[in-house]
């Protein structure tokens, strides 16, 4: 494996993310020992020399000015990835939350019109049926029958009132 000035940054990023193999790490150490390191990557040289040396002692610090400038560049390059990740996570949470709210609201609305029948049941051929959706046709039929009976009762009551009225009028005629 040959590292060049073109692909070294990719390997450094993979190294920092813990995604390199031992062979790739050895190639990175050799690259930094050649002295052919681009200026913007020289800040990593002490770190890789320390790793290659078996992490003995303390790594040698680099001049603070170069490190600050390069860290700002590296940090500013990683902000968009973090911002994208946070934005995507927020969109997923909002979408799932709204979906759950809408979906549960639809279920409540669907079940609400029959919720007064919870606990109702019918028996057909000795079997008890408690599923409201299955017994709704029977409930609707019963309600329609009850409405018909109520209308007949009102008609009879009206007839009785008319008959009473006629009797009262005839009594008034006889008494006068």
Description of the molecule:
By secondary structure, the protein is mainly alpha-helical. It folds into three domains: 1-62, no CATH class; 63-112; 123-175. Helices cover 69% and strands 3% of the residues. It is built from five helices and two strands. The chain has helices spanning 8-16, 22-33, 45-52, 64-112, 132-175, and strands spanning 122-124, 127-129. It has a two-stranded antiparallel sheet with strand order 1-2. A hairpin with a 2-residue loop joins β1 and β2. The chain is rod-shaped, with a radius of gyration of 43 Å. The relative contact order is 0.04. The model is unreliable at 63-72 (pLDDT under 50).
Any chance you could write out the topology, listing elements then pairs?
Layout: H1 8-16, H2 22-33, H3 45-52, H4 64-112, E1 122-124, E2 127-129, H5 132-175
Antiparallel strand pairs: 1-2
Helix pairs in contact: 1-2, 2-3
Identify the notable features of this structure and list them briefly.
3 domains, membrane, 3% strand, mainly alpha, 176 residues, transmembrane, single chain, two-stranded antiparallel sheet, transmembrane helix
Radius of gyration: 43 Å
Given helix and strand content, the structural type is: mainly alpha
Morphology: rod-shaped
Instruction: List the secondary-structure elements in sequence, H or E.
Output: HHHHEEH
Keywords: Membrane, Transmembrane, Transmembrane helix
Transmembrane segments: 81-103
Q: Outline of this structure?
A:
The protein has 3 domains: 1-62, no CATH class; 63-112; 123-175. The protein is 69% helix and 3% strand. The chain has 5 helices and 2 strands; from the N terminus they run H-H-H-H-E-E-H.
